[in-house]
Design brief:
The protein has 58 residues and is an alpha+beta fold. The protein has a domain of 33 residues. It is built from one helix and two strands; from the N terminus they run E-E-H. It has a two-stranded antiparallel ribbon with strand order 1-2. The longest helix has 7 residues. The radius of gyration is 15 Å and the shape is globular. The chain starts with 20 loop residues before the first strand and ends in a 5-residue tail after the last helix. The N terminus is likely disordered.
Length: 58
């Protein structure tokens, strides 16, 4: 059996464009698109608001 270094998650694979899903940012309430289907149990942020919620890098 052959293995590659990419793993099985599909992360980083080149399978064409990702399906985008429209949603509303939990902070600014603007409509945005994300590359995953929001489940509704966690907040979803637009690109700008997401940067404000990332932990600070040292």
């Amino acid at each position: 059996m052959e293995y590659n270094n990419r793993g099985g998650s599909g992360f980083g694979s080149n399978n064409g464009p990702k399906e985008m899903h429209k949603t509303t940012c939990s902070d600014c309430k603007q409509e945005t698109e994300v590359p995953f289907k929001p489940s509704g149990d966690r907040p979803v942020y637009c690109r700008e608001c997401f940067q404000n919620h990332r932990p600070a890098r040292n």
